[in-house]
Amino acid sequence: MQGLLRAASRTRTLAVFPRRSSPLGFVHRAQSLRTIVTKRYTAEHETITFDDSTGIGIVTITDHAQSVLGDVVFVELSSTGTEVQQGDSIGAVESVKAASDIYAPVSGTIQEINEVLSSEPGLLNKSAEEKGWLCKIKLSDPSQINGLLTEEAYRASYES
């Protein structure tokens, strides 16, 4: 029985438990392992993907931003452990066209930075919102996510 519980909690699937009073002998109970992942945007072209179960948000620049910047040649990021406030500069990106600061979309502590970007800055052009992530921030105030732009609002901000 415990093996079944461990397997169900790892895979986050529906678990089946035996019960004598059921005519079929089983009752289905959904596990309460719900994780909500929210993706939001800033008007300055950063995005954050927030996982409410860990309290950590993964910060990237948007695909639109990397296309406007052109070929990225250098990425500088704040160090792990840095406390940041929403709107603080957390790094910079330089491309063949321009240089641009990167701003913290939320307040919190930088838990990890993407070290690969120091040797492969072009990864921002290839996979800006996935492999080219910039840093992971442990949010001090998760409600700040609600004040950021949805994808539709972000698109409207640069298309108009």
TrEMBL record:
Residues the record lists as N6-lipoyllysine modifications: 97
Highest taxon in the source lineage: Eukaryota
Record text on cofactor binding: Binds 1 lipoyl cofactor covalently.
Cellular component per GO, a single term: mitochondrion
Keywords attached to this entry: Lipoyl, Mitochondrion, Transit peptide
Co-factor(s): (R)-lipoate
Pfam families documented for this protein: GCV_H (PF01597)
Domain Lipoyl-binding: 56-138
Annotated SUPFAM superfamilies: Single hybrid motif
Entry's localization field: Mitochondrion
Keyword Transit peptide: yes
Gene Ontology terms: biological process: glycine decarboxylation via glycine cleavage system; protein lipoylation
Family: Belongs to the GcvH family.
Function: The H protein shuttles the methylamine group of glycine from the P protein to the T protein.
Subunit structure: The glycine cleavage system is composed of four proteins: P, T, L and H.
UniProt protein name: Glycine cleavage system H protein
Native organism: Hypsizygus marmoreus
Source organism phylogeny: Eukaryota, Fungi, Dikarya, Basidiomycota, Agaricomycotina
Underlying gene: Gcsh
